[in-house]
Recover the amino acids of this structure.
């Protein structure tokens, strides 16, 4: 039987690449995104086959609540919608940016998971893939609330594992480093294209397909295998030294 996957943030970047990869692997895609025109493009691209689109923002709790009636019980969820806003030092950051990241990266993901989890457990199968980040494990200047939301995603994933062991429901935190070819840096810098481009200058970032392939790998493991976390980075990315304030 065709397996059904809900993908949030499916209109661009990692979400879009994941929709394409999983569709090619035979999955039915429930694509969720804010931009209806892009969702329609995606449905056209798939010839209307094994695709259902829902235009909504994951920050909209009521819209999320309606998904259960639309989707039924999915075989997998890819909680991908999210992003970073701002790279300022904490004392210069915009509160609205912080709240947007918490509402999207944390609350949206929690709501969607909470919505489908009881039915998945009752059925005794299902896989939840959360898109975290290496920023959830390693701090960096300006990462403040963004990194904290991804730390939440990691620990929430692991705590779900603790609760769900034995239910047949699997949970994974996929944690990429720098991913180019997405709107991540554009969003972080409020649409400033040149600043966004500078982030990947002179290095080779991961691409959305690199992440989509990892997600597809996680989902294609046999039912008795749960991959807990997958952290990966571009070969050109590494770890910085500790910051020392000298006076
Ligand atoms: C983003 C990863 O390394 O650009 O989630 O902060 S990094």
């Amino acid at each position: 039987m065709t397996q059904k996957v809900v993908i949030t943030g499916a209109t661009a970047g990692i979400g879009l690449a994941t929709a394409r990869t999983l569709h090619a692997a035979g999955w039915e895609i429930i694509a969720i995104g804010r931009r209806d025109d892009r969702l329609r493009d995606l449905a056209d691209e798939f010839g209307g086959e094994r695709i259902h689109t829902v235009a909504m923002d994951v920050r909209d709790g009521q819209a999320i609540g309606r998904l259960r009636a639309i989707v039924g019980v999915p075989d997998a969820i890819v909680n991908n919608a999210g992003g970073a806003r701002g790279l300022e030092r904490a004392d210069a950051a915009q509160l609205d940016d912080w709240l947007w990241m918490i509402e999207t990266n944390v609350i949206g993901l929690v709501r969607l998971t909470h919505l489908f989890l009881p039915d998945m457990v009752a059925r005794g199968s299902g896989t939840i893939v959360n898109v975290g980040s290496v920023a959830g494990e390693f701090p960096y200047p300006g990462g403040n609330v963004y990194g904290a939301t991804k730390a939440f995603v990691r620990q929430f994933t692991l705590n779900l594992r603790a609760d769900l062991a034995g239910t047949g429901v699997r949970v994974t935190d996929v944690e990429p480093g720098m991913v180019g070819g997405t709107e991540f840096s554009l969003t972080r810098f409020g649409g400033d294209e040149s600043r966004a481009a500078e982030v990947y200058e002179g290095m080779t970032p991961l691409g959305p397909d690199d992440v989509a392939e990892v997600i597809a790998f996680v989902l294609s493991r046999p039912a008795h295998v749960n991959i807990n976390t997958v952290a990966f980075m571009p070969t050109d990315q590494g770890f910085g030294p500790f910051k020392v304030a000298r006076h």
